[in-house]
Every structure is written in C-alpha cells, then in structure tokens.
Amino acid sequence: MNTPRSKRVADRSGSGDSFFRVIQRNLKDSCSGRLLALILCELGRQEPDAFLRFLDLSVSRQNLSMPLRRLISNGGAQFEREWPYRTGRFADLAVLANGRPVMLFEVKENDVASPRNPAQLADYLHHVATEADPPHFFHLSRYTPISAPPALRAAAQSGRVHDLRYRDLYRAMRDHEGARGQQTPIARMVREYLEDIGVNVYQSLNLDEDRTALTFLVTQMSGFDHFHGLGRLHSADNAMRGPDLLKTLLGNAAAFGDWLAEPNHGLFRQKPKSRFLVTRQYHPRRLASAIASHDKEDDFVEPQRKAVGEGTLHVYTMAALSRSIDGPGKWAYVELGQFVTVSASKREHARTALYAALSWSGGGEAYADGDWLSPFPSEAEATAELCTHLQTAVDQAREEDDYPSIFDRLVIPAART
To answer: pTM of whole model > 0.70?
Structure first.
C-alpha cells in the first residue's frame, strides 16, 4: 500500500515507454534502423504516393526519371527488405522494377558511427559506380555523421547517391495528405514513429497563442513567488502545454545542432547535444531583506521566491570541438540556442531571442544575440539569423589574445531554405 503512485502506474503499463520505444529497446544498435526500413517498405507497398512525396521533397526531380516516378505512383514497383545486391551484402530496403533494383536504401540510426560502416558504404558506392544501369542509393540516417566519408559527399554530386536524414522523411509525412485531404494511415504511422523517438525537426510556435503558457512555464521553472504581478497564468491548459513547449524548443535546438554539424564533418568530437538551463535575477533589496530576516532553522525557499525578479530559460545545443591541434588539455565549444525571459520587475510576459556563443579553455568567451522575436521565425529565418550571430561571435573571439585557432576551421552553414 505504500508503493508510490508513479511506480504503481509504471508497473501496470510495463516499462512506461511507448510502443515504438519498447520495440527499439529490444533491437541491437546495429539493427536499430531496420524498424524504420520495415515501416518504409509498407509505406511504399500500401501508399506509394506518400513514398513518392518523400522522394520529391528530398531529391531533385531532375535526378528521378519520369518513368521511375510514374512506376512508383502507379503501384508498379516492388518493395523488398534485406535485398541481396551483391554477395554478402544486403540493402535494408530495395525498390524493384520488373525484379531489377532501381533504388537501394541503407538506414542508419544508433549505428551511424559503427566502424563497419566505411567498408559497407564503399561497397554500395562501388556497386553504383560500376553497374551499367546503376540504381539510386539512399543513405538515410537519423543523425548527421560526424565524419562522413568524402566519397559519400563526392558521389552525391552524381545524382545517383543521396544522403538524407530522418527529418527529411518527417517533413514529407507531416505534410502529406491523401485523396480525401486526410493523412493516410501508414504515413501517419511514420510521422508518429519519428515523433515518438524524438527526431530533430524545427517547429515554429505561435507566440500570440503560446505566450501565456510560455510565461507560466518560465515562472514555474524559475521559482517565482505566487504573487508575481503578471496576472493570472495558471490553468490546466497552460500546465499541460508547458512540457510540450519545452519539448518543441529542445527539438529546435537539436535541429540547430544538426544544421551546424553538416558542413563541419570531423571537427566535432561528438554530435551536438541539446540542453536547457534556468537562470534567475533577484531584487537586491528583497533578497537582502530575506537573508537578514531568515531563521537558519527554517527553509529558505519561500523567502527566496519573493525576491525573484526575472527568470530566463536557455534552450540550446552545444558542440565540443577537437582541440588536438592546439595541445592537450584544451577545449572549445560552440553554442547555438534560444532564451525565453520573463520579468516580474518590468511586468513583462515571455519574450524570446536567438543567440550564438563560443567558449574556450582559459575563460574565453564570445557572444552575440538578436532582437526579441515577433513573430516566431521559420527555420529559414532562424538559421539565417544564427548565421549572423555565429559570424559576430567568431569575429569577437578573434580579437582575444588567446583566440583558439581551431575556430578558423569552423564552417558557418548556409541558412536552411
């Protein structure tokens, strides 16, 4: 009877994980992409128009012939998993025309950094390069490879090799509608699967609709006093909406990390990681009064809450750069993100802005941010602004005596379109 309620609920529901996560947990890392390959195979068989939409949004139309597109759209293509394209090598998914492979897919998730990948990729590229009528090869990975082989990037110029991400598939499925103007069942399953495993896709917010919920989220995380002077914020809807907003902001930060990693193959020690941090500013007089009147035997939480004047939620992605060229024990970081500030002192609800920052061993820092966002930017607008902030931060860092030379190797990506 004394078992915590959360434990009792978890016991009734198994692990507490979702259906897709339970399946993924029982797959080895080396097989983690096979579940998506299975779902894609059914998508092609049952809803070829949805499959074709993924190709159209991810690959230039000029690289896919009209007869091939028509074959898929009309349901004339065959979709097969674990297709043996050469002795000892199997594609995760193959699209066949009259029994001949016209597309080969290799799906990578947790095994994107496996030491076996270079040899596997070399076999795919050799197959495409030496066949008289070569198939298209799709390298579909959840994460941007930290050290993508130059051969893959070079082969992509041929129009027969395509390096894609899960987020490309997500965008296609999110926006796909069938003949009746509704999302089709398998396309919805793909979308829900990708959402369930937390694929990094940028999503805009409606600040007019979400500002109150954002304000409530920040006041709760920052420990504002109940009588903060910002009006009525608490409601069941705002309480439920807050975690979704944080998840969206974390997903956007992760999308910024993928965007930054793409042109910087080999520069980062590992893929960028998303994080969040809450900072507070206090009313000096209120804080001094709270400290002076505080009884050491009492909890200091409530007196401290009355002194909170401003709270800021920072949601960001951070990448560690390899510093081997600058000597052992050195470190350098790139940080891209967004912050949301609420001020009880100024009676200001949530306002948000984008920023970029560099930091390095020895205490060096460079920082740049922009104006308050209104409305919330699209991905193209956000990445264009981050380009400016990142360049400003690099320029600032170059003025420092201890400027790390490794920042000269950092490629600022082009804004997403």
So the answer is: yes
